[in-house]
Amino acid sequence: MEAITNVFAEVAELANRLGVTNIKDLPGCWEYDLANGWKVAVNGHDTPMAATFSASIKVPPMHALFINPAYFGAILLASPVDGLQVGGTEADVIAALRQTAVTP
Q1: Contact by Cβ (8 Å): 53, 39
Q2: What does the alpha-carbon distance between residue 37 and residue 79 come to, in Å, rounded to a whole number?
Q3: pLDDT at 81 > cutoff 80
Q4: What is the maximum span of the chain, computed from C-alpha positions, in angstroms?
Q5: Burial code of 87-103, b = ≥16 C-beta within 10 A, e = fewer?
Q6: pLDDT at residue 20 in the model
Q7: Are strands 54-59 and 49-51 parallel, antiparallel or unpaired?
Q8: Domain parsing of the chain, residue ranges
Q9: From the DSSP assignment, how many helices (H) and strands (E) are in the chain?
Q10: I want to staple 80 with a disulfide (CB 3.0 to 4.6 A). Which of 8, 41, 61, 102 is the partner?
Q11: Nearest to residue 32, comparing CAs of 19, 91, 71?
């Protein structure tokens, strides 16, 4: 089995802190507003799904889409094992995931 990428490990950690489970059972992507203006949509389905914050971009199966409009529309598409698929700043996304406050 391949190792999970750093970005996906941080997404999993945030989801765990939030108590998120079974995203494959959601009607669409699991979405969350992160720190520093970033947004994430994670697709746990076997088919591409649109994120509500960017219906024009379909998130591939088992991928995460990160968007930050404050950074001139910065986009990062991450795979759990293949790394980054589209340009973006991985360090900024990881920092946003780590800084995101979890409220009960």
Answers
A1: yes
A2: 21
A3: no
A4: 37
A5: ebebebbebbbeebeee
A6: 93
A7: antiparallel
A8: 6-99
A9: 2, 7
A10: 8
A11: 19
